Amino acid sequence: MRLAGKVAIVTGAGSGIGQGIAKQLGCEGAKVVIDYIGSEAGAEETLKAIQECAGQGGGDIVRGDVTNMNDVRSLVDEAWKRFGGADILVNNAGMEIRSDFWETTEEEYDKVMAVNLRGPFFLAQAFVQRLRAAKKPGRIINISSVHEDMAFPGFTTYCCSKGGMRMMMRNLTVELGPLGITINNIAPGAISTPINKALLADKPKLDALLRNIPLGRLGTVEDVAQMVAFLASDEASYVTGATFLVDGGLMRNYHEQ
Ligand code: BGC
Q1: What's the confidence (pLDDT) of residue 188?
Q2: What is the pTM of this model?
Q3: Domain spanning 7-192+220-252: which CATH class is it, in words?
Q4: Are residues 61 and 47 in contact, defined by beta-carbon separation less than 8 angstroms?
Q5: Does ligand 1 have an atom closer than 6 angstroms to the CB of 224?
């Protein structure tokens, strides 16, 4: 139980990668604040899985929209109220909207940036304010994407948000290091989750994608969750300022043919 005694806040923990992360952290002993916005049933499922591993009291559900400042503050406040504090923040909630650049609307731009970048920014801020006041160390783990670095035509808003998340992490490494707070990004590649439901249902597109993944398969939420658990653990205490690819080699793929 390498996370026993720790408290983790995980956003978007009612489905996909966030659900896998919350379960992993909970099963390794952390108390988990399970944030969700859309899927209450999914959040209940996350909580149930944690309770099966860790017993009652292993987690608590808090509904919170990361684009709403009141929700952002209360998500952090709830961790303090319910569990007496928090040590780990996992900025996982994210979304993408496919649209050609020349057709992208202000609404699409604002929505993607608000969920993927503004939310993590202010959540990290609320978390750091609490830690700083209590003179406590902490861990921030952002679920970014290979597209914090790699082009993704048709998803420029998503790439802008993840590129922003990359620089946010790099800057905060310097600003938060002296407070004993580490920050790292995980960059998943193609993981089988609801975010890419359309792609998973389109066999020719899926096959083309698989040909680009050297390990020849999609990733699972557990592949990502294992990396989060490591970064949250004491073993990673000297690790800060890095992006960790969990992508089966997708980022490095190159074929001369
Ligand atoms: C996106 C997926 C995409 C994958 C690989 C992820 O960040 O959310 O839609 O399939 O990157 O390109």
Answers
A1: 98
A2: 0.97
A3: alpha beta
A4: yes
A5: no
